[in-house]
Design a protein that fits this description.
Elements lengths: L4 E2 L5 E2 L5 H35 L6 H22 L15 H36 L12 H31 L1 H8 L4 H20 L1
Antiparallel strand pairs: 1-2
Length: about 210
């Protein structure tokens, strides 16, 4: 096996202790992507029906809200593994390596705390919907616990990945601060350019084959 494996969207990542989480995260992200494609097709059909036949599917907008909410957690999990979350790094790369390591570990911990809070609040919201048998205020009268269950599952997965990343970052803070900065630091412009070049090279090789 090559020492470099391919991450999401053609990016290459080195396997590490977090590698086991990447497989379910990628599959979940793929399912989320297909869900968004299905939502796009549904919205396109809704627009065509309204324009041509003056009719409506009655619920496309509601389903769209559910889909967008549900994919957030699953996408956030893969973004955590791929360092794809937005970070302001105007001064970070100019700081000493030791200080950067501490800040990167703090960032991983804060992300885990936020993801855990979202998962807990999502669970509380779903429990209220179950207890009160809440229905959507739309013609579909959707039992809210059903889409909320998928939503909470995504948030819980995101929280689990973020917690694992935070623990890994803390371990690297004690053992290897250089590896911590490489694995959990903000992606630099040179790294992004190198990844794009590798992705283009791979696509060119596949097309040539």
């Amino acid at each position: 096996m090559s020492p470099v494996d391919r991450g999401s969207a053609g990016r290459r990542v080195r396997p590490d202790a977090m590698g086991l989480l990447r497989i379910p995260a990628r599959w979940a992200a793929l399912a989320a992507g297909w869900s968004l494609l299905g939502l796009s097709a549904l919205i396109g059909l809704e627009v065509a029906l309204r324009k041509v036949f003056n009719a409506s599917l009655q619920g496309a907008d509601e389903m769209g809200g559910y889909v967008v909410a549900c994919v957030v957690g699953f996408g956030g999990a893969l973004a955590t593994l791929d360092r794809a979350h937005t970070r302001i790094d105007l001064l970070l790369e100019r700081l000493p390596a030791g200080l950067r390591a501490g800040l990167n570990a703090a960032a991983a911990l804060s992300l885990a705390a936020m993801a855990g809070f979202l998962a807990l609040r999502g669970w509380a919201t779903m429990r209220e919907s179950v207890d009160y048998r809440s229905l959507s205020g739309t013609p579909l009268q959707t039992p809210l616990w059903a889409p909320q269950a998928v939503w909470v599952a995504g948030l819980a997965f995101f929280a689990s990945v973020a917690l694992a990343a935070a623990l890994h970052a803390l371990a690297l803070l004690a053992l290897d601060r250089g590896a911590l900065n490489r694995r959990y630091g903000a992606r630099t412009l040179s790294e992004e350019i190198a990844e794009e070049r590798a992705s283009l090279s791979d696509r060119g090789g596949d097309a040539g084959a």
